[in-house]
Amino acid sequence: MARSSILANLPRFHRGGFWLLVIAAAASALLADHPLADTLTLNLRFTERALWQPLTAIALYPDGQLGGLIGTLFIQWFIGGQVEERWGTARYLTLVLLSAFVGYLVVALLGLAVPQMLAVPMGGTLPADIAAVAAFGLLHARQPVQLFGALPLSGRGLAVLVTALVLLGPLLRGNWPVAVPTAVAALCGLLLAWRWRPPASSGKVAARAGRRPRHLKVVEKPRLLN
Question: Does pLDDT of 1 surpass 50?
Answer without folding.
Answer: no
